[in-house]
User: What shape does this take?
Amino acid sequence: MTTSRQRTGDTLLAAVEGGVTTIDLGRQLRVGMPQSPNHPQFWHTLPRRHGDMLRPDGGSAANDMISTGTHVGTHIDALAHVSHDGKLFGGLDAQEAGRGGKYVELGVHTIEPMVRRGILLDVARHLGVDVLEGGYEITAADLEATLSAEAVDLRPGDVVLIRSGWGRRFAEGAPYLGTTTGVPGIGEAGARWLTDRRVHAVGADTIAFERLAPGGGHSLLPAHRVLLVEQGVYIVEALDLEQLGEQRVHEFVFVLVPLNIYGATGSPVRPLAVVSA
Amino acid sequence: MTTSRQRTGDTLLAAVEGGVTTIDLGRQLRVGMPQSPNHPQFWHTLPRRHGDMLRPDGGSAANDMISTGTHVGTHIDALAHVSHDGKLFGGLDAQEAGRGGKYVELGVHTIEPMVRRGILLDVARHLGVDVLEGGYEITAADLEATLSAEAVDLRPGDVVLIRSGWGRRFAEGAPYLGTTTGVPGIGEAGARWLTDRRVHAVGADTIAFERLAPGGGHSLLPAHRVLLVEQGVYIVEALDLEQLGEQRVHEFVFVLVPLNIYGATGSPVRPLAVVSA
Amino acid sequence: MTTSRQRTGDTLLAAVEGGVTTIDLGRQLRVGMPQSPNHPQFWHTLPRRHGDMLRPDGGSAANDMISTGTHVGTHIDALAHVSHDGKLFGGLDAQEAGRGGKYVELGVHTIEPMVRRGILLDVARHLGVDVLEGGYEITAADLEATLSAEAVDLRPGDVVLIRSGWGRRFAEGAPYLGTTTGVPGIGEAGARWLTDRRVHAVGADTIAFERLAPGGGHSLLPAHRVLLVEQGVYIVEALDLEQLGEQRVHEFVFVLVPLNIYGATGSPVRPLAVVSA
Amino acid sequence: MTTSRQRTGDTLLAAVEGGVTTIDLGRQLRVGMPQSPNHPQFWHTLPRRHGDMLRPDGGSAANDMISTGTHVGTHIDALAHVSHDGKLFGGLDAQEAGRGGKYVELGVHTIEPMVRRGILLDVARHLGVDVLEGGYEITAADLEATLSAEAVDLRPGDVVLIRSGWGRRFAEGAPYLGTTTGVPGIGEAGARWLTDRRVHAVGADTIAFERLAPGGGHSLLPAHRVLLVEQGVYIVEALDLEQLGEQRVHEFVFVLVPLNIYGATGSPVRPLAVVSA
Assistant: This one.
């Protein structure tokens, strides 16, 4: 006879069965959505549609073909994504690490699925604007003040999401990239403020997570260096934080499950904020 | 000043902070893994590697390119995937539904992320074998008996995962497809047993979820018809249920977040079983 | 014993052995080159590079992965590419023709490789400019006058290439598309002038062969209708005609070999103009 | 006034206008065709079909998406494809050559389009068989005897195509790869016989051009080393030589135009044999 491991009174299951609300933090993947030109363009098509052929029993199946980069739509950066002076996180030789065409160490397959505490720092709301300006650097003081205003605490292992409001421009397409305007976000100081608090991962509602200077492109990414290379903190980009911000949900269960792509530098993801209903 | 919506005492968050164990039910996405030849092959490569170029500040970024079907690796079937006699679930005209190259209705983007009760029916264990034979049809009586032996109940809205043990053959490659041997799984009767219980989604550790006859290929898929076309129940395929089975975790929080691909018929997924630690 | 079909004195082979000059009319396929956003972006990457692994004998092989539309770079339109009022060339039902996901009739695989007489109509030179203005419509009179000035005749079955000079802008990237400026080219009248002369195929140094109005995009393409739908004349786009124009080679052997892609609507090509040295 | 460079009496054009016969030496590119599993699978699909949308004027355009390796179907190997002991042709450091993700030197974009003399060595016919056996090594003596029997001469700069008859198995699918049976072809000695005669390029009707031992896979490829690495001779694979063999056309104008893919290691091609009609 089969014996189940007794889970009677599983606290988590009881909480879920008590009712939960799920807030989707991911962007829909659509052909033509804004994305960095540095990455292969997301494309989806249907090789087989209903009506193409019919099995003798009357059934038919339609299917898909996808071609894409991994740093498209809402996505997570694996530690293998960025190196500095030839080194990855932990001092790994960056060139050697890619030999064979897979980042066997520090690839996206090494990121554990996340089911952990998440915190929203709604900087735009705290600063009283809908959208921070392109190129605005969110300072450590901004982060500190927002946290304080929200009256939540930040604990080691948390995932911190920073709302600049820039996500409202996603629907505009190219302007979301901020090529000429720049994009708001933290800089090196903000990154250090976060890693000092020993967060597990960070995210934002912008294409590159950190501040981009007007006209500057992706030429300097100091926060990526601090987070991915020095401290081993994952970065989630192009989040949709509008609903979370509007509902003032500042503390939640953060769920993020990267695709388990062997040796890749990132993955499209669809993170969730989950709270008891 | 910012006011957070009070979440003090959020039951779910408390349960997560009390500690959870996450069991990964997804297969790793690797070039060369077994997959149905009906779908574009999964391929991953690195267009840019560290060592290719260095920014003036010493930084470099590596990235990925993916080409793939959506019914590869562990994946979910959207209702748009299968039609019968020219109709999709709800009686939608199947050919019309695909006009424009997107399944606007019933595409994978219409599947809500799942955070709900999951049940493992470990049929192989109940029948006292490591792996059910190719072509074996898991009967309604098998499902009933397994459920009873596991002493769990099945409730409307649950996700039911059926373990045949066939997942152990994933590592063998082509034999996992069962082209000549057939593959074990439920048939039409098993599908009706499940839909009578008003489950939300079902899954198995095989390539096509349901029984494939030896040498028969995918020519007849009655369980797909019952589930996707008649009853609107999602199907998850190529799950890795070995750890779940071994640890006899028969009841759990099931987490599945499909990629939000507009108009697609399916998505690779990495489902989780989560329990309090 | 083997007997060869006697080819002694093969005129063509003798002409080739006498020496030929080949002028390349195709654009190099590069990631980031200008292309229509209506088509999947050209992308090339190396999954395997030398240095990734070494066979025991010291050998290694590098390889490629390509994702692309077919109407990218220099390319040819098959007759299946365009329909009008639901009909393809010859009155074929356009929707039915694509059933199964392949254009079995009129797909690019039905275009015979071309080794035939080619004529350059260097309209820009004849009109005394380097580059015709965006939106300029090359008239039938322009074509007639250019032909006359070049003192060549036009014969049924010829391939006619029209130089607007706009190809000089290919290197500029986005401006080559002419989204705001429009693009010079023939209109419906020019197309009729060409088909009245029973040409086999036509080409130009622009993205869409025919005139695009400033700001008008690809909303109206009358020359495509006349050529592809009404008369069954192939169109070659994004040619590099600069060298041909500069050297005043107005009559040549035109060689074009489309990829034999079963059921596709077009193919990237690399046409040649070949003349005796 | 425009002055054409006088081409009156262009010998090549006259020969073409005198009438030519074109024999297609390329395989049709189809989803599911046999190809080496070492390369990304060829896949073609139609993102947009007629019937998906209609422009206000009644027009519509269908288009394609391709994902593929370059060493699929009939294809040419660039010199960058193979290295030995870390060196490419000319002693280039093989790992350095790929830095940046493009083979800037020796990539397929460096192969000049070919319009030159071609010779068919129909070894199968000379040896009196339809198809040489899997694993049979075509010797230098076989090449010499075939050439002699065909009563053609071989000149520096020629392209030599070797017919083993194995191409008849292309339609069978997987057996064409010869995984268990091996594949007929030349070995190191045959390669030296060819390079001693200073040929420009070589080709065969098999997947890997040279002999593959039964069960041996692609573990040793000495002819590739001699041709690509030591002597800089291009290799064309998976040719369709059946029509050429049947018609006993042993001497012809060989036309091959690789796609001009910047930095790639190969290209699908559709070579032609052209003779005066």
Remarks:
- Residues 4-276 of chain A form a domain with the Glucose Oxidase; domain 1 fold (CATH 3.50.30.50).
